[in-house]
Write a structure and sequence with these properties.
The complex is a heterodimer. Chain A is an all-alpha fold. Chain A contains 15 helices and four strands. Chain A has a two-stranded antiparallel ribbon with strand order 1-4. Chain A has a two-stranded antiparallel sheet with strand order 2-3. In chain A, α3 (about 25-40) runs parallel beside α14 (about 275-295), α5 packs across α12 and α6 (about 100-125) runs antiparallel to α12 (about 220-245). Chain A is globular and about 65 Å long. The two termini of chain A are about 15 Å apart. Chain B has a single domain, classed as ABC transporter involved in vitamin B12 uptake, BtuC (Orthogonal Bundle), CATH 1.10.3470.10. Chain B has helices at about 1-10, 15-25, 30-45, 55-80, 85-90, 95-105, 105-130, 135-155, 165-175, 185-200, 205-215, 215-220, 225-250, 260-270, 285-305, 310-330, and strands at about 160, 175, 180, 255. In chain B, a hairpin with a 3-residue loop joins β2 and β3 (about 180). In chain B, α4 runs antiparallel to α15 (about 285-305) and α15 (about 285-305) packs antiparallel against α16. The chains are: A mainly alpha, B mainly alpha. The interface between A and B is large, with 40 and 43 residues.
Chain lengths: ~325, ~325
């Protein structure tokens, strides 16, 4: 377990080794197989428009998944992200409607989402409520709360072009959400791999007691991970509101399961201490390429639930088989 | 840790009533029972219509689904694994049930078909988790997606109505014993008593606690860890099927969106009932009390004419408070 948690997080050397190691081979293989199979059946898969569409789809999930990866690494989980995503959109849109200022709206959204993260963190670390049940409770409160806040979708009454740009705009050839996701990803990647904060998160997740005995403030580190996840939900929520051009209280249903599926598909352990952001990126890509393939092959869209279900089980199983083969 | 020992090796209650009562008070369910009584007392004072036999019977009927599925989920938790697929399974089993009943007009064949699907899903979950060693949260999250997607695919996102209109099928979900106690509540309580007996007094139950508490020790003691966990998943699949049959009878059709979020409800009740996520700790009566607390809360808040949204907010707050209090108490000991 220990040697594995080290090897899967740090294996310097080759350029390939910097970004991926053996534990990602299975996912890279699945991704390659999917891309080849889909492009054979539908050549437009590689068109610029479609690639950008896939990246745009990935952006929302990846932004939140970056925070969720940190949380799972330090041994916690947040199931309230889907409910929070919807609430954030409503609040952000409402504040912009009232003030006419995009900055204030984004700040309000971030403040709210950060507070939700802080609340989750306090419940998990100070009240010592298992985060699986604590964040289910937060999810219920947010789902109820958003309907108390607004009965129907908060419409766009301000028509700020900068707000629309948040979700639909481009810088050069790249959509703005993709650029935001890339920035979030790089910052989180560096933080997890090259800063003491990141190393401490792994230590806390691998063995909280050992980490505490060596002087780490486990509670504080976990609290930070919760707040970071909350803030990232705030970012994603504003992008989603911009894409839908409304704050939808019903948005984000099941979003938490998609995010968690992507993260664990990427090889992050649920028991903490193991996982990488590269894995998470691959997990998000695999799930979204499947989604995209089902659409461009004109398959029944309900398969968008069935196929990812099969893939996360299959990928985890292949990873176990690979590890057994490695051990021989 | 004394609690885990207590749960793993329950003291068989001696025959005299006084000693039985004494043994009862040592158990960890007592704080839950007190919480339940506080909830009931509060709403009895706050609302005139809460503490009526009719309403209590109704709440018991409403809690039956979560209780039936909760038994299986709690057993899987105690064995050290997780099962979140129940939310989709309750919707999925209604399809073979209704389709077979529509074709054959036989309730028996319909239930057999539903149980067959539940058995297969439980066996797949169990095989992948116990024998192939895939993390059970991933497996059951996967089957949660697959089953829900399968239901959407088969039904084309509509409900399949029950055309056989069998009276016996209608009675399962809507009938009442002596015109009062809903049959689902009766079924849930019978299942609860049966499985609580198995978990406390039969070798299988002891094996489940042993396997969840410490798989290595259980293996050295000669238990087949894999087989025990496999059996737990099958039990969970079958019990979720029973819940699904009761739900289908109440809805009168196979509804594609039935049971959305049901897995969260059940997991919340099971953990509130003191069943540990890390395995080996907890009891089915605790789980049942967890389900009842949440059901009475939701019913009572509804009686106070509180909007459903407020019910969610208050329930969420109470779950956090209850688990936090439980943790606080445990650390003090």
């Amino acid at each position: 377990m220990t040697s594995e948690s080290l090897s899967s997080t740090r294996k310097p050397g080759t350029a390939f080794g910097l970004f991926a190691d053996r534990s990602q081979i299975v996912l890279i293989g699945i991704l390659a197989a999917l891309c080849i199979a889909i492009s054979l059946a539908a050549p437009q898969f590689y068109s610029e428009a479609n690639v950008i569409a896939i990246l745009r789809q990935c952006a929302l999930v990846l932004i939140v998944a970056a925070g969720m990866t940190m949380l799972l690494i330090c041994g916690e989980v947040d199931l309230s992200v889907g409910a929070s995503l919807a609430f954030v959109g409503c609040i952000g849109m409402d504040v912009i409607n009232r003030t006419g200022s995009l900055t204030l709206g984004v700040l309000a959204a971030l403040a709210f989402a950060g507070t939700v993260g802080l609340f989750n963190g306090i419940v998990a670390t100070r009240l010592r409520v298992n985060s699986l049940i604590g964040t289910i409770a937060t999810m219920m409160m947010l789902q109820g709360g958003v309907f108390l806040y607004t009965r129907e979708a908060v419409q766009n009454h301000h028509h700020l072009p900068s707000f629309t740009g948040l979700g639909a705009g481009y810088i050069g050839p790249l959509p703005i959400p993709v650029i935001i996701a890339a920035i979030v990803f790089v910052v989180a990647f560096v933080a997890l791999r090259y800063t003491t904060f990141g190393r401490y998160l792994y230590a806390v997740g691998a063995s909280e007691n050992a980490a505490r005995l060596s002087g780490l403030r486990a509670e504080r580190l976990k609290l930070i991970a919760f707040v970071v996840t909350g803030l990232l939900v705030g970012v994603a929520g504003m992008i989603l509101a911009s894409l839908m051009n409304a704050g939808q209280p019903t948005a984000g249903r099941g979003f938490e399961l998609t995010v968690i599926a992507a993260v664990i598909l990427g090889g992050t352990s649920l028991s903490g201490g193991r996982g990488t952001l590269i894995g998470t990126l691959l997990g998000v890509l695999v799930l979204k390429v499947i989604d995209n393939g089902i659409i461009i092959l004109r398959w029944n869209q309900d398969l968008q639930m069935v196929v990812p279900g099969i893939v996360i089980i299959l990928a985890t199983w292949l990873d176990i088989v690979r590890r057994r083969a490695d051990a021989r | 840790m004394p609690q885990s020992l207590d749960a793993a090796h329950p003291v068989p209650p001696p025959a005299p009533a006084a000693a039985m009562l004494k043994a009862l008070f040592r158990r960890s369910e007592i704080p839950l029972l007190i919480s339940l009584l506080v909830v009931i007392a509060f709403f009895s004072i706050a609302s005139d219509t809460f503490l009526t036999t009719r309403n209590i019977a109704n709440v018991l009927g409403q809690s039956a689904l979560a209780m039936t599925a909760g038994i299986g989920v709690a057993i899987v938790f105690i064995s050290g694994e997780v099962d979140v697929s129940v939310g989709s399974l309750v919707a999925a089993v209604a399809i073979p049930l209704i389709v077979v009943m529509n074709a054959t007009e036989s309730l028996f064949l319909g239930i057999a078909a539903a149980l067959a699907l539940g058995l297969v899903v439980g066996a797949v979950n169990g095989y992948l988790s116990a024998y192939l060693g895939i993390n059970s949260l991933i497996v059951t999250l996967g089957t949660l997606f697959i089953l829900r997607g399968g239901v959407y695919l088969y039904t084309g996102q509509t409900a399949i109505p029950d055309e056989a209109m069998l009276e016996s099928f209608f009675q399962i979900g809507n009938g009442r014993l002596l015109g009062l106690l809903p049959y689902p509540a009766l079924i849930a309580f019978v299942l609860l008593l049966a499985f609580a007996y198995v978990m406390r007094h039969r070798p299988f139950g002891r094996q489940v606690y042993a396997v969840g508490g410490n798989p290595e020790v259980a293996r050295l003691a000669g238990y087949s860890v894999k087989r025990v966990k496999f059996a737990c998943f099958i039990i969970s699949g079958l019990l979720a099927t029973v819940a699904g049959i009761m739900l289908a009878s109440r809805l009168g059709s196979a509804v594609h969106v039935a049971g959305l979020g049901f897995e969260f409800q059940v997991v919340a009740a099971v953990v509130l009932g003191g069943v540990s996520l890390s395995g080996g700790i907890g009891s089915l009566f605790g789980m049942a009390l967890g389900v009842l607390i949440l059901s009475f809360l939701s019913n009572g808040l509804g009686m106070l004419a509180l909007a459903t949204e407020w019910q969610l907010v208050v329930t969420g707050g109470i779950i956090i408070a209850a688990v936090a209090f439980d943790e606080f108490k445990r650390r003090r000991i």
